[in-house]
Design a protein that fits this description.
The protein is mainly beta. Helix content is 0%, strand content 45%.
């Protein structure tokens, strides 16, 4: 068996290791990690574990990271030197936007060479807990404790501050769907899911009986998949937040989730180090009911 590959650089022990602390390049060759004591985020080669690059732009610990999975030069003007966008949130209450060049496997600056943030997004008053970037829409959504959700353009302009219900104060995960709906998980009490429109309207909420550790949406923005401490991955309708499909329980908590490119399989990374693969053909869901028919 090949030797295990590990990120050996020391991370700040005050930051919990969450799925939002990591991102993988669209081609699967690099792992991006937040949480280093020197306020950087770094990239590592997946096949060797060796550090490739370190990026500096924040004044405090980098807490979360997200990367686009589409060629953003097709959707966002003035990005001809990049084919992806990386965003990072920090304890310094800012979000930095970075250009990713897949051809050279490097984070680059506006000159296409030296790594530097293309824009710095402001408006938070405390540590940024979670962040997500949409390459198709050219937008960034971010959340911090006890504060509104912020929606920015990747070029730096604030689009909207989205007020959240008073009982929601501890965001842990956030994403924006292809349908421009913002889904957030809050770790207050037993856990809550909330869906907002990009106009700032609260569309739906759902109290949970578990703390969600990871959540993703399908490509069309119809379904949300969650995994957490109750060991059972759940497929939900984003419109209603009601469960559509409950998968077989995992051996331990689901720490990270990913869908295959054809969306027929769900890959769940568990806290015990194992990986579960589930058949979840989302094309079988009709009227928010999962059909077992072939």
């Amino acid at each position: 068996d090949p030797a295990p590959r590990q990120v050996k650089d020391p991370m700040d022990p005050t930051l919990s290791s969450l799925p939002s602390s990591y991102a993988v390049s669209p081609d699967g060759k690099l792992l991006f990690c937040a949480g280093f004591w020197d306020s950087s985020f770094k990239s590592f080669a997946v096949d060797s574990g060796k550090q490739v690059q370190a990026m500096f732009g924040h004044r405090d610990l980098v807490t979360c990271i997200s990367i686009t999975d589409v060629n953003i030069s097709l959707h966002i003007p003035h990005t001809r030197l990049a084919d992806g966008i990386i965003v990072t949130g920090s304890r310094d209450a800012t979000v930095c936007v970075w250009d990713w060049n897949g051809k050279v496997q490097r984070v680059t600056g506006i000159d296409g060479k030296h790594a530097s943030a293309r824009s710095v997004l402001t408006g938070h008053v405390g540590q940024v807990e979670c962040v997500h970037v949409s390459g198709e829409q050219g937008t960034v959504v971010s959340a911090s404790r006890g504060s509104p959700i912020l929606l920015h353009r990747v070029t730096g302009e604030l689009i909207r501050k989205i007020k959240v219900p008073a009982q929601f104060s501890t965001p842990s995960s956030i994403l924006i769907t292809k349908r421009c709906e913002i889904v957030a998980h809050y770790a207050d009490m037993s856990g809550y899911l909330a869906v907002f429109s990009t106009n700032g309207d609260l569309m739906n909420t759902q109290e949970l009986q578990e703390q969600v550790l990871s959540m993703i949406s399908d490509k069309e923005g119809n379904y949300l998949i969650t995994g957490g401490f109750n060991l059972t991955p759940v497929v939900r309708s984003i419109k209603t937040l009601s469960p559509v499909l409950r998968l077989a329980p995992c051996q331990s908590a689901g720490r990270s989730l990913s869908l295959s490119q054809d969306q027929r399989f769900l890959i769940a990374g568990l806290t015990n180090g194992t990986i579960n693969i589930y058949p979840v053909d989302l094309r079988r869901i009709v009227g928010d009911q999962y059909s077992a028919a072939n």
